[in-house]
Amino acid sequence: MMLLLLVLTWRLSAAQSFDVVVYGGTPGGVAAAVSAARMGHSVALLEYHNHLGGMSASGLGKSDIETKEAIGGLFREFVERMHRYYVARYGAGSSNAKLSREGYYYEPSVAGHMFDVMVAEQPRIQVLKRRLLVSAARQGNRVTSIRVRNRDTSMPEDYSAQVFIDATYEGDLYASAGAAYRLGRESRAEFNELHAGVVYQDHETRTFLAGTTGQGDKRIQAYTFRLCMTTNAANSRVLDAPPPDYDRTRYLAYLDDWKAGRLAPPKVMKEGLGYYAPTFGTLVRALSMADLPNGKLDINMNPRPLGFPFAELNYDYPEADWDRREQITTTIRNVTLGLIYFLQNDAAVPPDHRKLARQFHLAKDEFTDNQNFPWQLYVREARRLKGLYTLSEADVTAPENLGRTRVHADSIAAGEFPIDSFPTRRREPGHDVALEGYLLMLDRFTRPYQIPYRIMIPEQVDGVIVPVAASTTHVAYSTIRLEPTWMALGQAAGVAAHLAITAKVQPRNVDTDRLQRELLRQGQVITYFRDIDRTDPAYAAIQYYGTKGLFPTYESRSRALLGNEWMGLLPRSSNERITRGEFLRRAYERGR
């Protein structure tokens, strides 16, 4: 009887077919699923965990974005929904609405709710949580189906599709399908990247330190958790005991940081770096903090102190099976809780520092099915696809005021966040300024840049689009690895899947001109300019032609009168008075 049941279940699972299968319920995966469904396709959205939303719903309560006008589309829609939520619930002039910062800052539970709403609005999307990828099947080079295991029933399930989208942080689907990928760090020489390989850098001055070689290796930047904590006593889950495997010696090096002045206030304050004035000069600065609505805080692990204990714990995570990944996740969870317990209770911590630390506790109304602790490990980098193009430092940097970053004719999104990588190694003898691998917000180098469609397409494997663990170097990945950028890439992946299906071609053969025009219609930003916004009638046209090399700088001069430039785009009278923007708008509408 049991054998018959297994056979029947297997046959039922083998019949599940969709236009698009998205594996990975990250923000990029949600954007891909919503995008494809809005284009009229049936979509299966599969996720390993019991929740959608990845890091944005699991502790990352603030949007990492420096140039808000550089990212639009579904991410902007998500942010606007968040802001409307706080205004509707608490009032436009409320402190909670103000703390949401126009929707860019939010409680993880609210973000998770909003992702669920966006998906539920699309009846063509079937959400399947707690699915573990087992394998991917191919016919020739094309992926035709994937097999997953239902983590609740332990039963296998098969899903076939015309297009698969790998939206995992780990790149699990494409790796299972046999696509080539990178792991670790390239050398300086491989892509001529100044910040590649083994690097020690002073995070105050950004100067290189002794020991920097630029040599490539397999090391991975540290993973942590992003906590949601509260100062509201009524909503606090107090740690009244240390976590399993607690070892106070892990954290004693923070005392050296404090005594050496490394926990003092920053020399230059900068928004978005987790600077929280009450902690300056205390051991509590081991944590980076930012205020959120409802008396909550986004808590990151500060990578600047030399006592930072999280590096090296994750080296084998990217290629490990999920049993081993869960072990690593548990270790990092316990180290995180151990740090909180140490700061709040250890006798070596000065009493006033302990008193300050005891103001912050896990929020009881967050992660209610996981003991108020985030369920998603912050996988900052794992596998990186080897795609048709590899985005590198040369694509995302440019000398200030000396032109724009490299132009890509197939750009489908803009990136803007500074190069920023967590340490790869714990403190080493003789290195008393910074941990190896740590690159802090290289905003002096990074400029808004174009992201080519080709970084989402494997070199050889067909039928797969990769918006998250995409084709970049380690250095370039440290700027695209933000949820706003991944949502933009996810939206592009969903539209590309639609075009591949309707044209009956593989994703690598999608008409990128049509892809760009559809994304622009949806409010995506594919080229950033300083001097135009969404109110400009030529907004889409200028972005489109920004991918064709018409603009050497970040200035469009849309409202300036046209001179003799761009003569080949449209016939015109030499004495016609027309603005640059209006001319390009006409050319764009005529499909020139």
Could you characterize the architecture of this molecule?
The protein is of the alpha/beta class and 592 residues long. The chain has three domains: 16-69 and 106-182 and 382-430 and 443-521, FAD/NAD(P)-binding domain (3-Layer(bba) Sandwich); 227-363, no CATH class; 539-589, no CATH class. Helix content is 28%, strand content 14%. It contains 16 helices and 16 strands. It has helices at 2-14, 27-38, 73-90, 95-99, 108-120, 172-176, 188-191, 253-259, 322-345, 351-357, 393-396, 474-480, 483-503, 512-521, 539-546, 580-589; strands at 16-23, 43-47, 125-129, 131-139, 142-150, 156-166, 181-182, 227-230, 236-237, 287-292, 296-301, 361-363, 384-385, 411-415, 449-452, 464-465. The strands form four sheets. Strands 1, 2, 3, 4, 5, 6 and 16 form a seven-stranded mixed beta sheet that branches. Strands 9-12-8-11-10 form a five-stranded antiparallel beta sheet, with no helix packed on it. Strand 1 (16-23), helix 2 (27-38) and strand 2 form a beta-alpha-beta unit. Helix 2 runs parallel beside helix 13 (483-503) and helix 9 packs across helix 10. The longest helix is centred in the middle third of the chain and has 24 residues, at 322-345. The radius of gyration is 24 Å and the shape is globular. 51% of the residues are buried. Residues 1-13 have low confidence and may be disordered.
